[in-house]
Amino acid sequence: MALLNFKRKETAMPDGVSPETEAFLQDYSIEVMPRTAEKVENFRDLLPAGTRVYIAHIEGTPIEEMVATAARLNADGFPVMPHFPARIIKDRATLADWIARYQGEADVKQALLLAGGVTTPHGDFDSSMQLMETGLFDAAGFTRLHVAGHPEGNRDIDADGSMTNVSAALKWKNDFQTRTDAKMAIATQFAFDAKPIIRWADALKADGITLPVHIGIAGPAKLQTLIKFAIACGVGPSLKVLQKRAMDVTKLLLPYEPTDVIRDLAAHKAASPEFNITNVHFFPLGGIRTNATWAIENGGSAAVPANA
User: Fold this and answer.
1) 17: number of Cβ within 10 Å
2) Which residues, at least 6 apart from 80, have a Cβ–Cβ distance to it below 8 Å?
3) How many CB atoms lie within 10 A of CB 256?
4) What is the largest CA-CA distance in the chain?
5) Which residue from 77, 239, 270, 302 could staple onto 51, CB 3.0 to 4.6 Å apart?
């Protein structure tokens, strides 16, 4: 029996959930890893039909485990978007093999392309742009390619703390969509404060970048867990939101929930419908079940439109 899929229409929204928040959470996506997916007995008990599920490829994870996870999720009816981290892919032949495996065993048609969190490349590729330039995804009939975004910068790319290189890369990717048939979007690193997110998204638009943004949001988790991940992932100024919370003894032991950042982004989207953030992408740092339950209880559904 599904725990979440069919109750939402029969039950009033919880107190405090605004129509703006409910609208903003429609068509959200969520990220898993093979080892976390193994702990979920049945994804259909947690995620509404049509939820796009990203599969993170961490260095050292065998491609066989990635493909098996993708096949399982696809069989359960979820559109799957595996990561392709450029720096852990040895060469063109390896990339072609991965694509063929995902297609042949899991019917995958979409991918998140990113450089990956590895300092020294394992082979020929250093960036997602190089993966795109191979033409292998287009030749294989992939219908959608997402690329990484960094609302608070990325010091692995811009050591001086600026946005120079990450902005140039996004402009290149925006041009790639213009000159090809690729359907694309930006999936971002998570952040905890709406203000820098809004400033970054507005700056993209001012620079002529038209790719829709799927904003990364950390799901409910223990505060200590989030601070650890935020530091490891290079989250910038919005980390202060967590640090301030950690100084409040009344909140220190309570789990963090993304209520405030979602509420503020939703209000901005309602006031400015042309705002380029179109979807929420959850990082379930406190567990998939915890995140999925929170999303539905706060108005989210996840039937992904064909053009999302």
Assistant:
1) 18
2) 52, 53, 55, 70, 73, 74, 106, 108, 110
3) 24
4) 56
5) 302
pLDDT in tens, 91-142: 999 999 999 999 999 999 999 999 987 889 999 999 999 999 999 999 999 9
Give dist(CA 14, CA 37) in Å, integer. Answer: 28
> What residues does each domain of the chain span?
15-152+163-297
- The residue type of 192 is F
Please identify, in words, the CATH class of the domain defined by 15-152+163-297.
alpha beta
Q: Torsion angle of alpha carbons 51, 98, 186, 302, nearest 10°?
A: 0
Burial class (CB in 10 A: 0-12, 13-18, 19+), 245: middle
Tens digits of per-residue pLDDT, 159-170? 555 566 778 899
The secondary structure of 4-30 as a DSSP string is STTTGGGSPPPTT--HHHHHHTTT-EE
H/E stretch holding 243 reads helix 239-246
